[in-house]
Amino acid sequence: MFYGVGGERLAEFTLTMPTTTPSGWYLRFTEKKTLVWFGSKLLRDGKYNVIQDRLGSVRWRYDTIAGTSSTADYYPYGQEKPSATADDREKFATYLRDAESGLDYADQRYHNPGWGRYLTADPLMPDKYEDPNAWNLYTYVQGDPINYYDPDGLDVKDIPLNEVPGIRTCWNKFYDEFLDGYRGKGDNRHNEWLDSDVGTMALQVFFEFETTDTQANRVIWRGMAHTIRNRWLLENSEKKAAGFTTKGFKELVYQVSGPPRKGEKPIWEKKQLEKGRRDRLTQYMNGDENSAMCKGIIASFSETRAVYYNYGNSNVGDALFYASGSSTPGINKDAYQLLTPQIVYGTNSSGQVVTWRFWELGRKSTQ
To answer: What's the CA gap between 111 and 56, in Å, rounded?
Structure first.
């Protein structure tokens, strides 16, 4: 086999030693197949045209001679499902799967897809001592194949968001809406945003009411965001005025978070998004930007962001939010003014249609 400077397999030859000739012995290299790459993407494997996903796993093959095509699916650590197909070709995460051993050749070492482990230790010996997941030098992507991949067996990398020209994911929509629309190589601003105060509240609001985008759902998301923001203000404004240390905003979100419904797990576990929800978030964000759940996430995040940044030091800016089933709420009219209500129709646990009215309360000026 012949490889490129980036470790890509370029061609495969068979070596034979024909019978002697008058000039003596000689070796013959016979081309078995060639592979065509564009950047880091495999386009053709011998007689097959192929398509890879963001991990580099081959998901579709087209036999240019027979005129037939086939697809492939993988479990998180690389095993094929529902059953294995022919090996000795690129399959999972850019790796060449060996036919004799069933192992994946990861350029620098071999990976066992059945174990989710490498057969040898990481030769780079990563120095991320503060992260216990990095202590095991044999694990594949530190046990998190949903969010990371390792194309050369040396280092954990974020799964690319848009490696294939013309294919846009929900992450691209996220960058357009919340950042500057451009994501450079190694850009990690999406994680920084999600880990910020507003990002933490956005995740809490969405996963407390995990659904698609409708006008009614936007009102509900906005009301939930107001509830969280109000609690922080009420708990900390008096403390701040008295000179006491105020509680961090994210700490409040972690504290008030619980299972949205009976029998479900809490949204946060040890200040991290619960694994099932983290996996769903990854699925949504790596999916098509026009999918219903992508539109729901972007809309929910937008409503939360608007609420978060609407709270300032002015009397009216510190808006409150009030929900009532039917009648106009009783409020302190000396302190607050009712703004135009939003009306939402839904069903209760008995299947009956109910009407909810949400009011924003503007604080009246004390000047």
So the answer is: 15
CA–CA separation, 157 and 151 (whole Å): 8
Task: Give the integer Cα–Cα distance in Å for 219 and 360.
Answer: 11
* Both structure tokens of 138: 């044999």
Measured distance CA(174)–CA(158) in Å, rounded: 16
- Is the per-residue pLDDT at 190 higher than 90? no
Say if residues 319 and 230 touch (Cβ distance below 8 Å). no
Cα separation of 242 and 261, whole Å? 38
CA dist 295 and 189 (Å) reads 20
197-221 burial: b if 16+ Cβ within 10 Å, else e? ebbbbbbbbbbbebeebeeebbbbb
Q: What is the DSSP string of 30-45?
A: EEEEEEEEETTEEEEE
Alpha-carbon dihedral sign for residues 307, 308, 314, 315 = positive
Max intra-chain CA distance, the chain = 112
Using CB atoms within 10 A of its CB, is residue 162 exposed (0-12), middle (13-18) or buried (19+)? middle
On whether the CB atoms of residues 111 and 104 are closer than 8 A, the answer is: yes
Please identify which residue in the block is written with the tokens 């969010």: 147
Closest CA to 224 of 331, 333, 344, 328: 344
Greater pLDDT, 36 or 164? 36
pTM: 0.52
pLDDT digits (tens, 9 = 90+) for 243-269: 666 567 788 788 766 666 677 888 888
Which residues contact residue 226 at a Cβ distance below 8 angstroms, ignoring those fewer than 6 apart?
307, 319, 320, 321, 360
Q: Chain-wide mean pLDDT for the chain? A: 75
The three-state secondary structure class of 134 is: helix
Task: With residue 276 as reference, give the H or E element that holds it.
Answer: helix 275-286
> Residues 275-318: pLDDT tens digits?
888 888 887 887 788 889 999 999 999 999 988 887 544 333 44
Q: How far apart are CA 104 and CA 78, in angstroms?
A: 9
Cβ neighbours for 145, distance < 8 A, ≥ 6 positions apart? 76, 77, 116
The yes-or-no verdict on residue 142 having pLDDT over 90 is no
